[in-house]
Design goal:
306 residues, alpha/beta, six-stranded mixed β-sheet, four-stranded antiparallel β-sheet, 10 helices, globular, disordered C terminus, binds adenosine-5'-diphosphate, binds magnesium ion
Length: 306
Amino acid sequence: MATTTGTTQAKPGPPVEEGGSGPIVELRGVGKSFGNIRALSGVDLKVSTGEVTCILGDNGAGKSTLIKIIAGLHEPTSGEYRVDGRPVKFSSPREALNRGIATVYQDLAIVQLMPVWRNFFLGSELSTGAGPFRRLDVKRMRAICDEELQKMGIDLPNIDLPVQNLSGGQKQVLAIARAIYFGARVLILDEPTAALGVKQSGVVLKYINAARDAGLGVIFITHNPHHAFMVGDHFVVIKLGEMEFDAPRSELSLQDLTHHMAGGAELDALEHELERGQVPEVDPLHGVKSKESVEPELPHQAERKG
Ligand SMILES: Nc1ncnc2c1ncn2[C@@H]1O[C@H](COP(=O)(O)OP(=O)(O)O)[C@@H](O)[C@H]1O
Ligand SMILES: [Mg+2]
């Protein structure tokens, strides 16, 4: 099943708000280098309860590196990481999880052949009895799983079915419900809709909203501005390891976001070139012609240039 690494889970309970009304998670000028490779630099980020923060960026932009820092998998090489207003240094995802920071990775840690309820409790199984009579408390685990899924409005026909019978979207949603039940305050979702079709993506987006309404701070990583804009309260675009853009929902439109994702200034320059007809000419037999070898202009080209 889903979420978090490790075999045991944080204790169940509702999200607890510590540290008053400030952000739960805050990064100040955070950077990360791998030897000579600088994957991330100067990142400032605040994640608050009841808010969806979207992190967008191209492949290799540094999104996964960023969330691995928040999740406790990487230590930043510069800057400061704060939880509930106090600096922290996590040396494992377990430590982050103990502070309520849970991560649902793209390749969900699901056991396909196990029933839904077993996956819900995977690594945190409840038991009953003592000593040699100790055994799994199947009855209670089934009941809690059923209740928690109902609470989130997740309607599965049968929680005894193996998880492999669920759709991709339902598996993601199961992972989200599980993280909430086990006490997550911050829920990190790494590209949960990347491998899904339109309808299944919609299912996941709906439960991102549900997690926010349950009071969690959600970090939603995606490279799809449409998905981000449907649920996001705050948007951050990362490019080559740096924050290119950072704005609350009130300050931007879907068009702005799409524009930033598509490369912003670079796209403007390209558009400008295309308008002026300065695209390299392609000779079907010999590929791109060099400027010197370009034949005299044909009349229609001269017209277009005005
Ligand atoms: N463990 C690592 N060692 C060396 N380089 C890494 C490591 N992890 C990430 N990188 C580099 O950091 C950059 C950002 O990667 P990543 O955070 O995975 O980007 P994204 O998730 O946005 O696609 C890439 O250039 C990648 O090669
Ligand atoms: Mg990634």
